[in-house]
What does this fold into?
Amino acid sequence: MGRFVLRRLAQSAVIVFLVATLTFVLLRMAPGDPVRAQFRDVTVSQEVIDEYRRSWGLDRSMPVQYVQYLGNLIRGDFGQSFSLHRPAWDVIREALPNTVVLALAALGISFATGMVLGTAQGANPNSRMDHTLTVITLAVFSIPIFWLGLMFMLVFGQWMGWFPIGGEVSPVYRGLPLVGQLADRFRHLVLPALTLGLGGAAVVARFHRAAMAEAFAENFIRTARAKGLSEQTVVLKHALRNALLPAITMFGLSLPVLFSGSVLVEYVFAWHGMGLAAFEAVGRRDYNVVTAITMIGATLVVAGNMVADLLYRLADPRTAES
Amino acid sequence: MTALLRVRHLSTSFQTEAGLVRAVDDVSFDLAEGETLGLVGESGSGKTVTALSILRLIPQPPGAFGPESRIEYDGVDLLRLPSRELRKVRGAQIAMIFQEPMSSLNPVLTVGSQISEAIRAHEPVSRKEANDRAVELLDLVGIPEPGRRFRDYPHQMSGGMQQRVMIGMALSCRPKILIADEPTTALDVTIQAQILDLLLELKERFAMSVLFITHDLGVLAGVADRVAVMYGGSIVEQGPVRAVFEQPAHPYTRGLLHAVPRVDRPSDRIEGIPGSVPTATAWPSGCRFHPRCSECMKRCEVDAPPSYSAGTDHTARCWLLDQSEGQRQ
Ligand SMILES: Nc1ncnc2c1ncn2[C@@H]1O[C@H](COP(=O)(O)OP(=O)(O)OP(=O)(O)O)[C@@H](O)[C@H]1O
Ligand SMILES: [Mg+2]
It folds into this structure.
């Protein structure tokens, strides 16, 4: 187990390094000059521009820039935001909690809904309920995420007026008591989390249904029934325990999807998370902020996958001791 | 001897894409108290489906039982028992062990917990008590260091050990009937004899009735009291083990006996039965054995033979018995 962790840590470090390099290369290959992007509406003289380039280190040769870039990353120094004139890390510190809250809520919705539906379907394959849920999950899966978000806004925000349609808190947030503040945050979270989570729920349900159906076809299910166990025990203990292994893999795979999905959802719902910050930073060629967001995102995804791998090995006795 | 289990006109079919599979067709037999009935037949003859039908372990759909089918245990028809009641029979009254021990055990649960859960399904005992009994059972079935092996996962055991665990699990609630579906087929030859001896010993000790399924007629000579021979989804001959071995009435049984190498009748070649088992989607017309039968007559191709008496408590489904010695039942 210890060796496995060490190996996975080393692999993770390599992946993060590759992401850092790729980010560096892609940013500098992308069209648009970072300095000019900051002065979109004003004309500035070449001297001013050169001065900025010098102070941001963009005047050196590419290899020198790359070495400096890696050195800064290793020290955890993401540099200054070109457009916001403050440390890129500050941008992250404000955006990251919002994204984590949104992602965790969406993850909860995806897995709670998906596992329940998939278990019910897998335990009763080809029943009417199974067929109905298959149609529904496929439909939800094929809805574009931004359209779903807009529909939620329209129906539950505009028409019903049940939930606010943007931001994390109301303007009156500061004046509310603690319970009111929590409720306010929750109300703001509902629509973006549902938008981001429902597609995932459909995917989880599809995969988990297949995993359950596969587990049900196994001989040990027959043994469990032959022992006189209740159908509930057969489903929840014998089949589900085995179908959890694919679910753990799915958990690892869903993290990157969640991060990329959150860009759209944060944009639609004006949710001030990493996705929205990334969207704005890319538009302004704010290299340092884009880099910081990419690196934090990559680290989180890699760490999440490592946790999933570890969980898998712990959950499967056949790999646990090797 | 009174029959503990009465199987009557059991027909089990499966609705598949290739059509209706009539895996078991009008099977009837009795299992008396303390008796071992050997059910023998080639692969695909319907032995496993018969065994699974008894405990209603056939998935429905695609499986379905014919309307005439009855499986009476202790006077109650298991096929019509509400599932809550059926659960009290499964494992507690009638237990089963399977052909492949590896896949029959849950890979993510310890073998001990799989035994103690069987106990707790039927008896109001504490977890601790059930675990203690599971360790005793592991000891009983000959697993060394049972206290430590309790916490093993199935993959940490050899096939023989796994089958011992399955036997321990089956015996955990002291069932009246044990159904053993080819319990040694998947094991090494050396292990097969050990498992067989263990089963025989435990059968005596627990005074169980056993339905012993095998494709090896030779094994039954030392194991069974009575023998039922299956072919093409039906029982073609059944009777006391001596009678079936010494005066086989059905050409198929005779063929099987020739295929068994015997010490007392040395021959330099083992005669098999020519041809292969027909598939359950398309049984041959008339007697299902007729395309392979060396004594096939005209009527065998058209009409399925009824069951004829071939001696005391000995019957066979063959037209040959019509003229010669038996009278119609
Ligand atoms: N779930 C099922 N769906 C469709 N057909 C089935 C199903 N289970 C069994 N059958 C068919 O029923 C027939 C009898 O199978 P069964 O497993 O009872 O044979 P068997 O005598 O136990 O053979 P073996 O010695 O190989 O175990 C076979 O043709 C098989 O394909
Ligand atoms: Mg079989």
